[in-house]
Design a protein that fits this description.
Helix content: 40-55%
Structural class: mainly alpha
Oligomer: single chain
Mean pLDDT: 81
Number of helices: 2
Low-confidence stretches: none
Order of helices and strands: HH
Number of strands: 0
Length: 66
């Protein structure tokens, strides 16, 4: 008899996690389109962030920019 409440508890913890995880996924077609437009993104961890045109940060107080 102890198995049924334990099973219900496990399902109650697992099911909501699956519902929230599925809301933020890409479809396969979207992924194929993204990779076709920019094949470098298929590199996983080796894909660098795109460089932006940002102004350099100011030097800290008491230091001089090089």
């Amino acid at each position: 008899m102890k198995r049924i409440p334990l099973l219900v508890l496990i399902l109650a913890l697992i099911l909501p996690a699956n519902v929230f995880a599925s809301q933020d996924t890409l479809s396969l077609q979207d992924l194929k389109t993204i990779l076709k437009n920019d094949p470098a993104k298929a590199g996983g961890n080796h894909y660098g962030y795109p460089a932006g045109d940002y102004p350099p940060a100011p030097a800290p107080k008491g230091y001089e920019a090089v």
